[in-house]
Design brief:
The complex is a heterodimer. Chain A is mostly helical. Helices cover 72% and strands 3% of the residues of chain A. Chain A has a single domain, classed as ABC transporter involved in vitamin B12 uptake, BtuC (Orthogonal Bundle), CATH 1.10.3470. A two-stranded antiparallel sheet of chain A has the order 1-2. In chain A, helix 2 crosses helix 9. The two termini of chain A are 36 Å apart. The relative contact order of chain A is 0.21. In chain B, helix 3 packs parallel to helix 6 and helix 6 runs parallel beside helix 7. Helices cover 36% and strands 24% of the residues of chain B. By secondary structure, chain B is α/β, with parallel strands linked by helices. Chain B has 10 helices and 10 strands. Classes of the chains: A mainly alpha, B alpha/beta. The structure holds adenosine-5'-triphosphate and magnesium ion. The site of adenosine-5'-triphosphate (ATP) has 12 residues of chain B, from strand 2 and helix 1.
Chain lengths: 292, 257
Amino acid sequence: MDFDVITHGIVAGSLYALVAVSFNILFRPTNVFNFAQGELVMLGAMIFASLTSLAGLPWLVAFAATLVAVGIIGLIEERIAVAPILARSQTGTGWVITTLATSLIISNLVGRFWGPDPILVKPPAPLSMDALEIGSARISSYEIALVLITLILVAVVERAYRTLRGKAVMAVAEDREAALLRGIDPGSLGRWSFFLGAAFAAMTGVLAAPILYASTSLGPDLLLKGFAAAAVGSIGNNRGALVAGYVIGVTEAIGASLLSPGYQEAVIFVVVLAILLLKPEGLFGSPNARTV
Amino acid sequence: MKVPPSLPLLSANKVDAGYGHVRVLEKVSIDVRQGRIVVLVGRNGAGKSTLLRALSGLNRPTSGTITFDRRDITGARPNAIVGAGLLHVAEGRRLFRRQSVTDNIELGRYGLRLTEQEHDRRVNRIHELFPILQEKRDLPAGSLSGGQQQMLAIAQAMMREPKLLMLDEPSLGLAPVLVDQVLAAILSLRAQGVAILLVEQMVERALEIADDAYVMQNGRVIAGGLAADIAAGDALQAAFMGEHGTPDHSGPRWSVS
Ligand SMILES: Nc1ncnc2c1ncn2[C@@H]1O[C@H](COP(=O)(O)OP(=O)(O)OP(=O)(O)O)[C@@H](O)[C@H]1O
Ligand SMILES: [Mg+2]
């Protein structure tokens, strides 16, 4: 087997890990899984592609505008689709339906703005998608950067949970009522988490665009694999999500190289199901586990 | 802005509250004056915890009013009530068991802007009063013993320096020597001018350190006044007698936690 398979797996796995981290950001204070997360990633890629290749905005400006725009969409989703459900019952699961509905609404609406053709997005200079030969592996400078940025982003997110506000989020995740008694406002942390989780998803879309192309059909696939990475890495655990992202990415790449491409999804499913059957809480501990 | 001695710091006026459609409190009125220890006693299920929950905003009163530090806090959100200086250490302590002792103490000042000096002063004071917490600062709160957890809960409250601290059964499950330590901590808080509203099953011990007392039964306050008068009066007997005139749950509850 060729070393390329591993590098491709790591690159794809980094993207899955980022989707999983965006799930976790949102999940921690709310206990809500946002099934529209894949569409938020897609929106990030599409809005960014339009702003750069169509409107010609500079890379950084387009990047910032995309994150804010999708962050606000996440906030609107929280207000309309999630907060009313949680207000009725903290343990209710109605959000499964409402976030799925949000996902469907977004995926239907985007068809009115954008055609079905993928948009090519170039990486910011001096990075490029041209393959470099490093030993026996072929990988582009952008892909190397993506793998490194993913590591940095996971470290930054984990660092954020070491601040007092981050600890308050973990407190809400552990015992919402106890957090209320310490003057913590879970509602406000939930809104922030939706904004930041959505912006993080958009960033994932921007980062993915040079590799996957920006397309309106990006959502479901990343939702599924990001969700798998979050579940295998233990929900709420970002380092777990990183490792699980790699596992899923590499499994997928190996599956694709050994079997015909049509089976690679099946291979992922078998591996993910096997892991979750053996360890339902994921590879890295219980739900919400404290990650130091 | 100090409340004049004549005006109570906390005043609940004919408060009704409960859980959803279950009504527990009926026209409960109590006052807590500045710098005093007020003890709330009554049998299991009398509604003591429910009253504290109504005061801290966890359970919204269905009627009646609550004023604290001259402000109407009826129906206010818990974080607003905490911000006003009314703090509630809930039954069972409710610490963040997965976070470290230090993190729990720091969460006690969530939302406050303290200078570094002031922050360190408060932390030092906590470590002086409870040296064990300094020793265990990096361990998860869930790994502490019951007594240490109670100290941590009080320490967390001390970070905020509330005007009024409500403690729900702080002695529950503690060995006698630790009960002494907790009661001593309560006295030292009063010495600093903090008012205390204490729910206790160890009625005699609580009445010894209290200034004022209220007796609750079936969701109502059946007596209130100076702790010494309550200790000598009939209401206490009545509240702790079973329906057939037999003493019931009057002793300390040594449940294992
Ligand atoms: N979550 C709840 N939902 C419905 N009813 C409740 C709930 N919690 C308590 N109650 C009821 O409210 C009444 C008062 O309970 P509360 O906990 O206030 O009593 P308490 O005086 O604190 O008793 P204890 O000494 O056992 O702590 C009881 O009849 C109890 O069954
Ligand atoms: Mg109680």
